[in-house]
Amino acid sequence: xxxxxxxxxxxxxxxxxxxxxxxxxxxxxxxxxxxxxxxxxxxxxxxxxxxxxxxxxxxxxxxxxxxxxxxxxxxxxxxxxxxxxxxxxxxxxxxxxxxxxxxxxxxxxxxxxxxxxxxxxxxxxxxxxxxxxxxxxxxxxxxxxxxxxxxxxxxxxxxxxxxxxxxxxxxxxxxxxxxxxxxxxxxxxxxxxxxxxxxxxxxxxxxxxxxxxxxxxxxxxxxxxxxxxxxxxxxxxxxxxxxxxxxxxxxxxxxxxxxxxxxxxxxxxxxxxxxxxxxxxxxxxxxxxxxxxxxxxxxxxxxxxxxxxxxxxxxxxxxxxxxxxxxxxxxxxxxxxxxxxxxxxxxxxxxxxxxxxxxxxxxxxxxxxxxxxxxxxxxxxxxxxxxxxxxxxxxxxxxxxxxxxxxxxx
Length: 410
Hints:
Strand content: 15-25%
Structural class: alpha+beta
Shape: globular
Radius of gyration: 21 Å
Distance between the termini: 54 Å
Helix content: 25-40%
Strand order of the largest sheet: 2-3-4-5-7-9-8
């Protein structure tokens, strides 16, 4: 493991050829690279790059999986400051969010919202401490973020500017305080774009990222009975909740951490995270019973509409964006949602000034000449305007004003 500081901005010099395989195989290429903070070379190593993403894999400006190798070609973990040590990260291109602020900025804002809850909800994983079982609780989890985290970088390829990217953590288990050997630690991630929560569990639409089980393949049935039973139980409850069957609605406390679900609903509504419907679903339980949401891939949000090749930018948008299970959840828990929304407003968390600081902080770390070079090199997909921080703030102003009419002053 190589340990270094986490910069606010860095440079990666790549030497070699970029991968071109966008098929499901995603064949990698091996390159050498230097990692620099300012003009200081921090380390040199090898890497394997492969094209990353689903829809973004077809974009002109491609993102990459960045697997780090030492000079002998063996896996090398890097720990940047308070991030988990990892030998595989993502180089996110963000050709839609040209500000490079939405994904990380929203993740940091979500963390502030969660932190405003009392303990243990603020810990996200909600695991009760047990002195009798070290297997039940990870011994070291303080660097787990439960969200995407990283920093912007400029990429040079064979000494020529290639673009502005964000070096970011993947869905690595340690970043979610998960122990792959613990059958109570279950992490579900959707595979396609229409993974439905209220239709019952369809293995073909989900990847079980944790725990690790012999015989399991992505999209296949879950071979371990206790894990399969837990997942089926959870999905059956969501279907019953939607249909108002039996005591499902009154029994919510046996299935979810309600504070987390309410905060997540408010979060995706404030930022209009429409790409969370049927996609970017990260659901986790650490006790085989109570499930929470962790946000992921938030670059298409805050007024960006790249869906169905519409490529438009909104300055405001009325109407709720949460769908699927939340269509039933939202009216049932409306009193609790209103109370929590009012609390977040009263505590000055949901203000343009407070939320805007996360986006300002990231943009301010990126040199203007780098941002301008990226703008000149890569085509802007949005024809009506260009994504900016001011558009983010204007959208949040208008969005919060509309949500006030729903949850604060109806």
